[in-house]
């Protein structure tokens, strides 16, 4: 058994008042090894963001348990061991890109003393934003803003990285470029990643495993192994293995969506 970066055991979560309670997560169990990249894919509303928020400690589950790196979510969050890129990036428009990335370091400075941190300038450079550090978010393209949000999540060099559709607002060409950039960064900065996406090729290109969720109630339908060799580059898209995996994942989605076109 590999060291578990994230261990989710029998987690359940419902929303709504008594008469109209909706079960959004039903007995979800999942382990992400240290340095493993796991994607979650599934129909809109099936609970992907809710699962991510439970793992991030932003919302409490009703039942079950989440362990991060052997400790509770609360302890891991307090210790800055969890990095989060939310579904819509929240860069502050009145701060430069560099100041946005520095922001987590300046909040609660005393608690951060002695903590391992990464140099914001180096991080921005490795995400291709070295030239844009003094610009404001409004002066950047959508893809560049996303990269800044991702760079910011790496400032405390967390062991666990949670990303909720970080590239969903981008057009396909830009998106592909961003995902290859992330892949390259991750290949030399291995973290346990939980990555939510709607894109089948994106899930395959990035992941070691793909978790397919079903809705009503939100649950794990199956987990698909992605055995493509690493490091992966653009050429992986053209391989027969890639296309076969695409077929497998699309069929799984088709089934959980009750035959709706994916
Ligand atoms: N705070 C909340 N209060 C009440 N209901 C909520 C809350 N958060 C999420 N839900 C409901 O839970 C369900 C799952 O939401 P969630 O955001 O996890 O879905 P998702 O899989 O991330 O969808 P998408 O792909 O559209 O982002 C939805 O029906 C949503 O309306
Ligand atoms: Mg979501």
TrEMBL record:
Pfam family name, one: ABC_tran
Keywords: ATP-binding, Nucleotide-binding, Transport
Signal peptide residues on this chain, from the entry's feature table: none
Positions of the ABC transporter domain: 6-240
Highest taxon of the lineage: Bacteria
GO MF annotations, alphabetized: ATP binding; ATP hydrolysis activity
Cross-referenced PROSITE patterns: ABC_TRANSPORTER_1, ABC_TRANSPORTER_2
Name under which the protein is recorded: Nitrate ABC transporter ATPase
Organism (species): Agromyces mediolanus
């Amino acid at each position: 058994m590999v060291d578990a970066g994230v261990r989710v055991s029998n987690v359940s979560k419902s929303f709504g008042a008594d008469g109209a309670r909706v079960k959004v997560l039903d007995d979800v169990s999942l382990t992400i090894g240290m340095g493993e990249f796991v994607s979650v894919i599934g129909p809109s509303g099936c609970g992907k963001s809710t699962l991510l928020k439970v793992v991030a400690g932003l919302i409490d589950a009703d039942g079950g348990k989440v362990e991060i790196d052997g400790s509770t979510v609360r302890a891991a969050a307090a210790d800055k061991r969890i990095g989060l890129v939310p579904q819509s990036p929240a860069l502050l428009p009145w701060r430069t890109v560099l100041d946005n990335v520095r922001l987590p370091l300046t909040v609660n400075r005393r608690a951060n003393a002695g903590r391992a941190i990464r140099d914001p300038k180096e991080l921005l450079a490795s995400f291709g934003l070295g030239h844009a550090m003094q610009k404001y978010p409004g002066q950047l393209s959508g893809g560049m803003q996303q990269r800044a949000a991702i760079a910011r999540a790496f400032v405390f060099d967390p062991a666990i990285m949670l990303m909720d559709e970080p590239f969903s607002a981008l057009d396909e060409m830009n998106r592909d470029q961003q995902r290859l950039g992330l892949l390259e960064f991750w290949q030399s900065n291995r973290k346990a990643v939980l990555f939510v996406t709607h894109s089948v090729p994106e899930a395959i290109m990035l992941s070691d495993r793909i978790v397919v969720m079903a809705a009503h109630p939100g649950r794990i339908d199956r987990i698909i192994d992605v055995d493509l060799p690493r490091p992966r580059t653009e050429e992986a898209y053209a391989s027969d293995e890639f296309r076969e995996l695409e077929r497998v994942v699309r069929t799984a989605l088709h089934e959980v969506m009750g035959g709706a076109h994916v």
